[in-house]
């Protein structure tokens, strides 16, 4: 019998500890003091793990007041001199309100976004610890996007941070800078009952990349990756795709506590986040292997 080899490098327990630490900062919507503290914490962590960190500052309009809101992405690069790069991104901001709570008072309650926000960032933090030794010969960037959802009910625009990132990436590439061969977006990857279905836009616009990742998941026996075709999800992969970067989102949009006050660390599991982390790690290694063969 050909059982998949056990790979414990991506530590789900350590990623869960990061998730809990991020949630302890409180709700982290764009423009908030907690969002700023998270940015500092994550940037410092990336630096300690050997990443070359850039802060991409920009500004958006508050959907209700029209006032400018300061926003910033944190982008960290390993092996920054490599022209061939891949990207793993996640949004760090949390939704300002728990819109899917039926009770109007609960809707205003503190929404900490343990799965919707912290899980993707926690996975990036654990990947950062491993990147000095993983993907040698390949440029790997981790991006924490701001302002994925500074949205109140229907008011506001999605994915402002990834839009800003994609704009700059395109400018850099046109100026002779590095090029991203592929990107994965991680969003809601820690739910206890997580099922990752193949997301619609990723299938339509980056079919081969979806296939590549699910092929790795099958090889690793990652049973939370489902062959089912999921919904179309407006997420940070869309601005990347529009900028010509092949991108897919690993997103569990059926998370039962989605946009409710129940999106807390107790609704998350180390096993789910570790399974995604191990697939992403193997994906990075596959890209590094093929880039070595072509150079
Ligand atoms: Zn959300």
Automatic annotation (TrEMBL):
The entry's keywords: Acyltransferase, Transferase
InterPro entries membership: Peptidase_M28 (IPR007484), QC/QCL (IPR040234)
Name the record gives this protein: M28 family peptidase
All copies of domain Peptidase M28, residue ranges: 73-283
Molecular function per GO: glutaminyl-peptide cyclotransferase activity; zinc ion binding
Keyword Metal-binding set for record: no
Keyword Zinc: no
